[in-house]
Amino acid sequence: MGSVGLLYVGAVLFVNALMLLGRVEAKSAAVLNLFVGAMQVVLPTLLLAQAGTDVKSISAAAGVYLFGFTYLYVGIGTLANLDTTGVGWFSLFVSISAIVFAGVNFFDVKDYPFGVIWLSWSFLWFLFFLLLGLKRAELTVYTGWVTLANAWGSVTLPAFLLLTDNYTTSGTFAVILAVCAVVICAGLWPLTRPGRPGSAAPGPSTEPVTGA
């Protein structure tokens, strides 16, 4: 079930990235957030119902809830025209929690690539905190591009590797993911920094209504 959920998280991050970049209208993106958010709450609930006392299964479900609640929060908040500070500060909680889950993957589960992926998610959700919680609107374009990179690199790619039984927990794959993540996130900043020509978000809405 986890690989299926990852695939659709990739879809919602892709649409939200395009929303932040002004290519998708916010309320239109909110609908997909509701669909994926509901799925990311139902699936871990089913997992918990079957987990019993299996700590690893319970931990996995807890991690999925963080994102399911984010997408529901974003979808409902956008459609109801709510202020973004609530989802922004919740994103900070998710960002900190993701660091803990990264440690679990590195030192307990020994799934090194997903340790790196959790750190990538932590950084992305921290950007959502800055953008939505602290109203750092000048980070809209940078956050949009980092969201787009995560949609494909940290979510969709692992999902397809898992679905095709080609995923590996090797340290080598983890190093490759880490290097790519650092290079992309660092490289995007000078290209999207405030004041650079073309760094303003184009399109129908530049208000950072959602991004998770």
TrEMBL record:
Keywords: Cell membrane, Membrane, Transmembrane, Transmembrane helix, Transport. It comes from Actinomadura meridiana. It is found in: Cell membrane. InterPro entries: AmiSUreI_transpt (IPR003211), AmiSUreI_transpt_sf (IPR038523). Belongs to the AmiS/UreI family. The chain crosses the membrane at residues 6-24, 31-52, 58-80, 87-106, 112-132, 139-161, 173-191. This is AmiS/UreI family transporter. Its main location: membrane. It is a multi-pass membrane protein. Signal peptide: none annotated.
